[in-house]
Amino acid sequence: MGEFDYSVIFDNIPFLIDGLKVTFLLTILAVIGGMILGTLLALIRIAQIPVLSWIAAAYVNFFRSLPLILVIFWLYFLVPLFLGRPVGSFYSVLIAFVLFEAAYYSEIIRAGISSVRSGQIAAGRAIGLTYPQTMRHIVLPQAFRSMLPVLLTQAIVLFQDTSLVYVVGLKDFLVSAELIANRDQRLVEMFVFVAIVYFIFCFAGSLYARHLQRKLAT
Amino acid sequence: MISIQKASKWYGDFQVLNECSTSVSTGEVVVVCGPSGSGKSTLIKCVNGLESIDQGEIIVDGDIVDAKKTNLNTLRSKIGMVFQSFELFPHMSAIDNVILGQVKVLKRTEEEAQIRAIELMNQVGLFEHSSKFPAQLSGGQQQRVAIARALAMDPIALLFDEPTSALDPEMINDVLDVMVDLAQEGMTMMVVTHEMGFAQKVAHRVVFMDEGRIVEDAPTDQFFNAPGSDRARLFLSKILTH
Lengths: 218, 242
Ligand SMILES: Nc1ncnc2c1ncn2[C@@H]1O[C@H](COP(=O)(O)OP(=O)(O)OP(=O)(O)O)[C@@H](O)[C@H]1O
Ligand SMILES: [Mg+2]
What we know:
The structure holds two protein chains of two kinds. By secondary structure, chain A is mainly α. Chain A has a single domain, classed as MetI-like fold (Orthogonal Bundle). Chain A has helices at about 5-10, 15-45, 50-65, 70-85, 90-115, 120-125, 130-160, 175-185, 185-215. The mean pLDDT of chain A is about 90. Chain B is of the alpha/beta class. Chain B contains nine helices and ten strands. In chain B, the strands form two sheets. In chain B, strands 6-7-8-3-9-10 form a six-stranded mixed β-sheet, with helices on both faces. The two termini of chain B are about 35 Å apart. The model of chain B has no long low-confidence stretch (mean pLDDT about 95). The interface between A and B is medium-sized, with 18 and 26 residues. The structure holds adenosine-5'-triphosphate (ATP) and magnesium ion. Adenosine-5'-triphosphate binds next to helix 1 of chain B.
């Protein structure tokens, strides 16, 4: 294998960046989708709506007991079957991540909602706000603020987990790097580079999460 | 205005309210006092339906609070409430606290709400603090913003639950002054408090509670000069010697 040859990285930067874009796009869309669905699930469980709450709880427990890779696999086969047409691996994977992450986000957000003092709900209701209005204007903004560090940490985990898409051949950052590594026989350089990139983003993210945590504590 | 008739309430086996009856007519100021745990907070929370009663009836402005057909949101918007722990919305500036309900509940425009909010911030003497957040205000200032927030809904009556008992002594009077002004302007008020000076100054009647019962319900002078029950006498002797 010989000397390290880092030119393999620089020569393929555009291709790698395309892969990184897929990774980021997937992460961002999955965070947004997962948070919206997760908030919905959390609200349904907290409002204790009969049947619906039970379904939401079952959903959360179901997805939290499955390995992510299995969900990705299943959705890859199920989504086209369900829709009756091929959708491309990106969308099937995105749906898998949203469904999976929603289960985790819903638990985080539920904890966030219960951390808001009950007096705040009373104060909202006392000026005549409806229950949904109280949630929307009083409780959720405070819940999200206090949960920000945890939400961000979850997003970092998701960022790492997106690399699992290699099982369905989606060309994310890791898969792109692997393709080049194999083609040019530069495995070591490429995987060192990939590790450094993942590390930088995740480390920066977790530093920021810790900063937020400290800011909230004061 | 507010009429409470034989209201009873249980938490499990524990009876918090035991056939409580009293009333507050328009323009009247009624002070509610009594030992800790006697059910004062519970009683006034039942008036605006934050808690429900199991027996009896509470009628506010002609509507039965616990009746199915009563729109509690509308009823609550007409009855202001001020809490012991202020409960300002910490993620909004002081003035936005005063604006929120006007826009979301009364459907006023942002501008109308803003104008009214500025008036009220002036009335409670905090105009220059309008854009501060609750965490940047002292307890006394927060409580005055909370009063402005309640007044912003143009309420027909105000409920207070120990509005000064979480405050440092030097701030209590700032809040009491605002309340005295309101009372003297003819606001209908039901006030849970142990500030007997306030009661003597503006209350028309004093209601004394003990163990979930209304033990005494008397005109202010009579309550202080000739309390009808030993319980009330004992309570007064404890509180007035402080
Ligand atoms: N949600 C609840 N569940 C069970 N018991 C409760 C609940 N809320 C209040 N209680 C009980 O009901 C009783 C009356 O409470 P309440 O808060 O009305 O008293 P209070 O007169 O306002 O007392 P304080 O002066 O301490 O504020 C207390 O013994 C309290 O422990
Ligand atoms: Mg109380």
